[in-house]
Design a protein that fits this description.
The chain has eight helices and 15 strands. With about 400 residues, it is an alpha+beta fold. It has two domains: about 100 residues; about 290 residues, Alpha-Beta Complex (Cathepsin B, Chain A). Strands 5, 10, 11, 12, 13, 14 and 15 form a seven-stranded antiparallel beta sheet that branches. The protein has a two-stranded antiparallel sheet with strand order 1-2. A two-stranded antiparallel ribbon has the order 3-4. The protein is globular and about 55 Å long. The N terminus is likely disordered.
Length: about 400
C-alpha cells in the first residue's frame, strides 16, 4: 500500500469518526430551532454562554477525532509501504534480475511486430536460452556464447519409449480400430518427445479417449508408449488462432498431417505454459533449409541442446535415415534431435515410428545416430514449400 492509500484511509476514518462523535455528543432536543433544551429541561437561548461552551466541547472532540484518524491513516500507509519493501520489492527485484519485464501498455500492431522481429533476430543470433521448464523465464543474452562443449546428450530414458499407434489394431480399451491417420503421427510424436524437456507430461497424461476428426474414429490410450499425450497433441490441443483443435490437419482424409508452422506454434504454446501473453515469441522459430547451411543447422542444434537442454525437430526424408529402409518413395517424416558429438560427427535422434506397428521404420522407437552430412542430406531432400496450406509448410526444422 502506498502513502496515498494511507491518506485515503485517514480521510475515511476521520469522516466516520466525526459522524459517530457528532451522534453521541449531540445535545438533547437539538432539533428545536429557536432554543435548545439542556438536561435541566430549561429552555436556553441559542448563543448563550452555556451553549457556546457545549459547542466548543463538541468541536474539540471532533478535531481530536480528525487528528486520530489522520494519524491512523498515516500509520497504515507507512505500514503498507514497509510491508511492500519487506516482501514485494525483493520479489520484484529478483524478477528484474532474472530478466522479467514490468507491465507495460499494450503496444500497437506495428510495435508488436517490431518487437517480434527483434526477438527473432536475437534467436537466430543464438542469444535466446531457456534452461527451465514450461512457462519459465527465457533469457536474452547480451552476446551469444563463444564456446560450447564438444558433445552433449539429453536424457532419453523416457522418450525412447515413445511409439505411435499403428493404423489398425486394438486400443488401450481393448477395442479394435482402423484409422490410417495413426501412421502419420510423427509430428505430434516428435513434439511430445521435445515437450518432455519442458513439462514432463509425456508419461503422465493418463488414460483418455480421442476423436480423429478426419475419419471419425474414436480410440482410447494410456501412458504406455507415451501414446496418450501424443494423441492429445494430435487432436485435442487448442493453440490460439488455430482453425481446429489438434496439430494434425482435420479437414482432409487422409489427413495432411502437420506443417512446420503447426509444430512451431504447438511447441511455443505448450512450452510457454499456454501463456496467451508470451507464447508467440517464447522460444521456437522455423528455419527453411534453402536459407541455411550444414553449419547453421549444427549451430542451432548445439546451442539449444547444450545451452537450454532442449531438442530441435527436423523434417526429413525418412528413406535417408539409418533406421529406415532406403527403398521406396519419399517419406516426409519428423524426428527430434537430442544430442551431438563433434568427435564422431554424429547427431542423436528419436523416432516415434515403429516396425511392429507397420509404420515403416526398421525398429520400434528407440534412440538412433546419424552422421552430420547424412542428416543434412535427409533434410534437404524435402522440397521447401513455405505456404501455410495444410499440405505444405515443408523443408526445414524448428528450434
Amino acid at each position: 500500500m502506498s502513502n496515498g492509500g494511507g491518506r485515503h484511509v485517514a480521510r475515511a476514518v476521520s469522516r466516520a469518526g466525526a459522524r459517530e462523535l457528532s451522534r453521541l455528543t449531540k445535545p438533547l432536543g437539538a432539533s428545536i430551532v429557536g432554543s435548545e433544551k439542556l438536561g435541566s429541561g430549561k429552555a436556553v437561548r441559542k448563543g448563550s454562554g452555556l451553549v457556546r461552551r457545549q459547542r466548543l466541547v463538541t468541536i474539540g472532540k471532533w478535531l481530536l477525532c480528525v487528528v486520530v484518524g489522520v494519524a491512523i491513516g498515516l500509520y497504515l500507509g507507512a505500514s503498507g509501504t514497509a510491508a511492500y519493501y519487506q516482501y514485494a520489492a525483493p520479489h520484484l527485484a529478483s524478477l528484474a534480475r532474472a530478466g522479467a519485464s514490468t507491465p507495460t501498455p499494450t503496444p500497437s500492431a506495428a510495435a508488436s511486430e517490431l518487437l517480434a522481429a527483434e526477438w527473432r533476430s536475437a534467436k537466430r543470433a543464438h542469444r535466446i536460452v531457456a534452461p527451465g521448464f514450461a512457462g519459465g523465464t527465457v533469457y536474452t543474452l547480451a552476446d551469444a556464447p563463444t564456446t560450447y562443449p564438444p558433445a552433449a546428450q539429453l536424457d532419453v530414458s523416457v522418450i525412447q519409449q515413445s511409439l505411435e499407434p499403428g493404423g489398425h489394431g486394438t486400443d488401450a480399451a481393448g477395442k479394435p480400430y482402423d484409422d490410417h491417420n495413426m501412421w502419420d503421427l510423427c509430428g505430434p510424436g516428435a513434439a511430445a518427445n521435445t515437450l518432455q524437456f519442458w513439462n514432463g507430461l509425456i508419461d503422465a497424461w493418463g488414460r483418455s479417449s480421442y476423436d480423429d476428426p478426419s475419419t471419425g474414429v474414436t480410440t482410447t490410450w494410456t501412458d504406455e508408449h507415451n501414446r496418450s499425450y501424443i494423441l492429445h497433441l494430435a487432436w485435442d490441443i487448442n493453440v490460439p488462432g488455430g482453425v481446429h483443435a489438434g496439430m494434425m490437419d482435420a479437414f482432409h482424409d487422409p489427413s495432411y498431417g502437420v506443417t512446420l508452422y503447426g509444430l512451431r506454434d504447438a511447441l511455443n504454446w505448450e512450452a510457454s505454459g499456454e501463456s496467451a501473453a508470451t507464447w508467440q515469441t517464447y522460444f521456437y522459430v522455423n528455419e527453411w533449409w534453402n536459407n541455411n547451411t550444414p553449419d547453421t543447422l549444427h549451430a542451432d542444434i548445439v546451442h539449444d541442446v547444450a545451452e537450454s537442454g532442449k531438442p530441435i525437430i527436423a523434417e526429413v526424408n525418412a528413406r535417408l535415415l539409418p533406421n529406415w529402409p532406403s527403398a521406396g518413395s519419399q517419406k516426409n517424416h519428423f524426428i527430434s534431435i537430442v544430442g551431438y558429438d563433434d568427435g564422431k560427427h554424429e547427431y542423436t535422434y528419436t523416432d516415434t515410428c515403429g516396425h511392429s506397428t507397420g509404420c515403416g521404420s526398421l525398429s520400434d522407437a528407440g534412440i538412433h545416430t546419424v552422421a552430420y552430412s547424412q542428416l543434412w542430406q535427409a533434410i534437404t531432400s524435402i522440397p521447401v514449400n513455405t505456404s501455410t496450406d495444410p499440405h505444405a509448410g515443408d523443408g526445414g526444422w524448428v528450434w
